[in-house]
């Protein structure tokens, strides 16, 4: 039996033509999906709807976080199509079927910053796409997710590797040159009356990287009780953010540990992904998880920009009944921030053959709760031997293999194996 198409499962009750009366659009009655049906081919568009689907599908396959997910491409019969007005255009068409795409419907809220929009453009640039029609109607902001989406890819262009590798300044110059060639106006910001090139430059560091402190998604995450609220420092050609920790000292110690190519590793409390990216560069297949829903999306965006193929997902170790199986689980300055140490230790021990933990002899864990930080767990050991003994009793079946040494702020990095 053929699988039922999504278009047959959904109800689109407000089918209507767009302003140019060339495509029919509608949201479904649940408000979750959006359909676009191509009635007339617009020669001024770079892509027909099939080409548009190809571009969005490419971004989806690369796990782009700033474009809608496309769910279906197909054909609808002329006889099945009725619109609120303009039906004569459909009736006069010689075509008996019309191509359509169904994708996520993206709401549009207030509050997006120019930094949010630049982050989306830069992510998609590094995944090989320039949407090429940047205007208010095509920029949507979901305030719940703190994500700025770009929609409508019928003018999009696939980038060469040389264009992908451009720095921000050069790429935005390319965008304007591209738009001038296609539209006769050489300013990719031309549709934004309130933004100038100077506003763009203010979002960048002196080195030309986008300062992620100018983005909503990094400002709304809550992962560290510091002045800026930013835990990891990230530094790349296209993006930068200053946090309270780097990986330098820890990387030197971890360089002495063995990681096999393709080793399946879970990074618990991944934050912005510094450790996950290090493990990726060591050849591991990495999954980063964090109990903050904003930071895991931000981490995927930054990893896409930095060219790291890493999976990130939202996970609260206290709420999860069990974990998937991994070769190694990393617990870097995170375990004491969970509430139920005994149960969480069992979950970890049952799901891997190696644990690498970073911790101090004395720890006082906290988690955000509303506008406050509340205490979770704590311990105080007089010696490293006591800490090791506690870990071996907590992670049943595991014994200390290697003390990799002390990193910054007296944090030990300890390797335990079954």
Quick overview:
Helices cover 28% and strands 25% of the residues. By secondary structure, it is an alpha/beta fold.
Q: What can you see in these coordinates?
A:
The protein is α/β, with parallel strands linked by helices. The protein has three domains: about 5-105, Phosphorylase Kinase, domain 1, CATH 3.30.200; about 110-200, Orthogonal Bundle (Transferase(Phosphotransferase), domain 1), CATH 1.10.510; about 255-415, Vaccinia Virus protein VP39 (Rossmann fold). Helix content is about 30%, strand content about 25%. The protein contains 13 helices and 21 strands. The strands form six sheets. The chain has a seven-stranded mixed beta sheet, sandwiched between helices. It has a five-stranded antiparallel beta sheet with strand order 1-2-3-5-4, with helices on one face. The chain has a three-stranded mixed beta sheet with strand order 10-12-11, covered by helices on one side. Strand 16, helix 12 (about 340-350) and strand 17 form a beta-alpha-beta unit. Helix 4 crosses helix 11 (about 295-305). The model has no long low-confidence stretch (mean pLDDT about 95).
Strand count:
21
Identify the CATH class of the largest domain.
Alpha Beta
Q: Return the average pLDDT rounded to an integer.
A: 95
CATH architecture of the largest domain: 3-Layer(aba) Sandwich
Unreliable residue runs:
none
The count of domains is 3
Largest sheet: 7 strands, mixed
Annotated CATH topology of the largest domain: Rossmann fold
Provide the helix percentage: 25-40%
Q: What structural class should be given to the helix and strand makeup?
A: alpha/beta
Shape: elongated
Distance between the termini: 48 Å
Give the helix tally.
13
Task: Name the CATH superfamily classification of the largest domain.
Answer: Vaccinia Virus protein VP39
Task: Estimate the strand proportion.
Answer: 25-35%
Rg over C-alpha atoms, rounded to the nearest angstrom: 25 Å
The strands making up the biggest β-sheet line up spatially as: 15-14-13-16-17-21-20
